[in-house]
Design brief:
The protein is of the alpha/beta class and 259 residues long. Strands 3-2-1-4-5-8-6-7 form an eight-stranded mixed β-sheet. Strand 1, helix 2 and strand 2 form a beta-alpha-beta unit.
């Protein structure tokens, strides 16, 4: 599996570039991913790929984006959905999202995801269940409020070191393999389909290059920084693909949950 700098390595190091006038930039803390931080582009595009896939399935629907963070995902969903509500408890993220993303069918609500109780067609909850102290309580609420839920989490087998219970990300309380993730979700929903997020295109080529020794070559030739300074900002959402099968090798799990 190809590796990239983890978000935790960038904590306190980067602030968003080139924000629109009147929009306060956010700092990269490791708890959330951000656009407009070139060094973070791999993680940001990995999230965008999933939001875009879900947006295609939310045309004309009323959608809640739980733990929406900076707001970019809610904005992507609002391009297709009839209405989107972005919910996040962080005051800085909430103010940033309200100032930056403005559509007639998009609003942001500050609050805990556990307290959201409006009825919606679809709930989107990406890369956050691993942060939650009582995930069963939250999943029960999501199942009551939405007809379908899209819930994603990192695959522990490809995020954490071999044999470890979790990665070193301090914000993650628990990480899951595919079987543990099913055991968490299935008691709360009528049907759960799991898809995996995988590298595609240039990221798949990078994976193959590593398999054939690229990680030995670039340090020896002092190419590491020049190469990745160009490669990482060039990654797009098209360099990731969602598909079923081979889930132990996936980067993230995306669960489609019918209530």
């Amino acid at each position: 599996m190809a590796t990239f700098p983890a978000m935790s390595e960038a904590e306190q190091a980067y602030i968003q570039d080139n924000q629109p006038e009147g929009v306060p930039p956010l700092e990269l803390t490791g708890e959330r991913t951000l656009p407009d931080v070139p060094e973070e582009n791999y993680w940001y595009r990995r999230h965008v790929a999933v939001y875009e896939w879900i947006a295609e399935r939310c045309a004309g629907l009323r959608v809640v984006d739980l733990a929406c963070g900076e707001g970019y995902g809610s904005d992507l969903l609002a391009r297709r959905a009839a209405e989107v509500i972005g919910v996040d408890a962080n005051p800085e993220a909430h103010e940033h999202a309200r100032a930056r993303y403005r559509r007639v069918n998009l609003r942001f609500q500050r609050g805990l995801v556990e307290d959201f109780d409006e009825q919606v067609d679809a709930a989107v909850f990406l890369q956050t269940i691993e942060h939650i102290h009582d995930p069963d309580r939250l999943l029960e609420r999501i199942a009551r409020s939405a007809r379908v839920a899209y819930i994603s989490t990192p695959n522990r087998l490809t995020l954490a070191p071999p044999g470890a219970e979790k990665s070193d990300n301090p914000w993650h309380l628990r990480e899951y393999d595919q079987h543990q993730y099913r055991e968490l979700l299935e008691p709360h929903f009528e049907q759960v389909e799991l898809l995996g997020v995988f590298h595609a295109r240039k990221l798949r080529a990078h994976e193959l290059a590593i398999r054939f020794g690229w990680d030995r070559v670039h340090p020896a030739l002092h190419l590491t920084k020049p190469f990745y300074d160009r490669f990482i900002p060039a990654i797009s959402a098209g360099d990731f693909r969602l598909r079923p099968g081979d889930l132990d090798r996936s980067l993230d799990f995306v669960a489609v949950c019918d209530a």
